[in-house]
Amino acid sequence: MKKPVIIGVGEIVWDCLPEKRALGGAPVNFAYHAMRLGADSYPVSAVGKDELGEETLSECRSYGLRTDFLQQNDLPTSRVMVSLDDRGIPTYRILENVAWDDLRATPEVLGVAGHADAVCWGSLAQRSEGSRAAILQIVDAAPTEALKVFDINLRQHYYDKAVIQASLERANILKLNEDELPAVLQMMSLDGIPAFVKQYGLDYLIYTCGAKDSEVYGPEGLISHIDTPRVEVVDTVGAGDSFTAAFVTAILQGEAPASAHARAVALSARVCQARGAMICD
């Protein structure tokens, strides 16, 4: 079977955790797990022409990630200060005016997007006008039949209705959590998940509710409900990104939605049991 081509586009950061610094950012986490699950995956982002940028490229290669579409510019490489509560739930302080705020839709990036089987993006990297335009251009370059996955990842104040609306209009898969769902329903004046799926013509809406459960919905309603496994949580950094990667990769590999959901739950539980987003087992 041909490997699916999967793109994660947006921020690449160094998560500065209490005990160590770890490479992260939703798109690179997503691309990493998709690669580990058998996809030909590409993170699309930008780093600085600085020492940390060079370290980022080297670290990506050490994980086996392709760096073909990691751009370099004169802004600093991104850092995120992460604090954890007593349940391992992270809070983020995201530094501004960093390299991925000047992400470009280069001809090379648009070329790989043009034959992608899936492209995944979120809201954070759209906080600057230039990066927002580039991300939407990359999504629009993907084939009509591709999975267009909006893993919303609301962070701090870095989103508004126009940003969310433009991405929802392009997505056929939406993933959000228990904090994001009510905020977005209110923002879009929608009454519940079925109305959401219908309004935007989604193939799947994935709703995760932390340690409780997760659900997958389609046009026909609820497809799959799985209780979250009880595990000893180290931290939840990157768990949602691994969930998305497992679900999308499984769908592209021909699995049924319920089976893809089960794979996503299992992988995200494993990520929660390790420090940082990129597990190597």
Helix content: 25-40%
Provide the domain count.
1
| Strand-residue proportion | 25-35%
Q: What's the order of the H and E elements? A: EEEHEHEEEHEHEHEHHEEEHH
Question: What form results from the Cα inertia axes?
Answer: globular
CATH architecture: 3-Layer(aba) Sandwich
Looking at the structure, the CATH topology is UDP-N-acetylmuramoyl-L-alanine:D-glutamate ligase
Specify Rg, calculated over alpha carbons: 17 Å
* Unreliable runs: none
The DSSP helix count reads: 9
- Return the CATH class: Alpha Beta
| Largest sheet geometry | 9 strands, mixed
Please give the structural blueprint.
Blueprint (H helix, E strand, L loop, with lengths): L4 E5 L3 E4 L4 E4 L1 H11 L3 E9 L2 H12 L7 E4 L4 E7 L5 E5 L12 H7 L4 E4 L7 H13 L5 E5 L9 H8 L4 E5 L2 H8 L5 H8 L3 E6 L3 E6 L2 E7 L11 H14 L4 H16 L9
Parallel strand pairs: 1-4, 1-8, 2-6, 4-5, 8-9, 9-10, 10-11
Antiparallel strand pairs: 2-3, 6-7, 11-12, 12-13
Helix pairs in contact: 1-8, 3-4, 8-9
